[in-house]
Design the sequence.
């Protein structure tokens, strides 16, 4: 049952990411900044774990590219960010570490991995560190929204659990 729940949540996040990709993106140069992806990465990292977080990031990137609302740079940024966010959260069980993992994974590592795509595969002139400010800006905005929403959920859940434990006494 747990596997079905995780797969269903992943599919819902992929649907949200794909549906919002034509509404909430910022075209900058030959990239399309998409903060919703980073929001979904933090959510899936915390709620689902590394395997499903990377699957969600890959699926949204693939569908965005098929629909023409994404770029090839979505793959390294989103997948590395989702992986690092989920691994850091698993290691520490701290929400802010999922935020840090998403921002560092996408903003630094994903940006560095995007350089060869621009330089060699697409033949675009790009500087190695030209992607970092764009990727960091997008990932901070989206990951912050995800971390805030998750912290609200955690507070509400703990309030509900304490209320129900008082009712049982």
Sequence:
């Amino acid at each position: 049952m747990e596997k079905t729940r995780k797969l269903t949540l992943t599919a819902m996040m992929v649907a949200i990411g794909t549906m919002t990709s034509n509404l909430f993106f910022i075209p900058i140069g030959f990239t399309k900044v998409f903060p919703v992806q980073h929001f979904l990465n933090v959510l899936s990292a915390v709620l689902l774990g590394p395997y499903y977080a990377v699957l969600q990031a890959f699926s949204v990137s693939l569908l965005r590219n098929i629909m023409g609302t994404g770029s090839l740079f979505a793959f390294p940024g989103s997948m590395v960010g989702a992986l690092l966010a989920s691994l850091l959260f698993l290691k520490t069980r701290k929400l802010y570490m999922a935020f840090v993992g998403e921002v560092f994974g996408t903003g630094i590592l994903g940006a560095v991995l995007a350089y060869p795509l621009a330089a060699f595969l697409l033949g675009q002139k790009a500087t190695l560190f030209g992607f970092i400010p764009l990727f960091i800006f997008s990932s901070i905005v989206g990951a912050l929204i995800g971390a805030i929403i998750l912290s609200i959920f955690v507070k509400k859940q703990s309030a509900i659990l304490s209320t129900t434990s008082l009712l049982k006494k």
Observations:
- The mean pLDDT is 87.
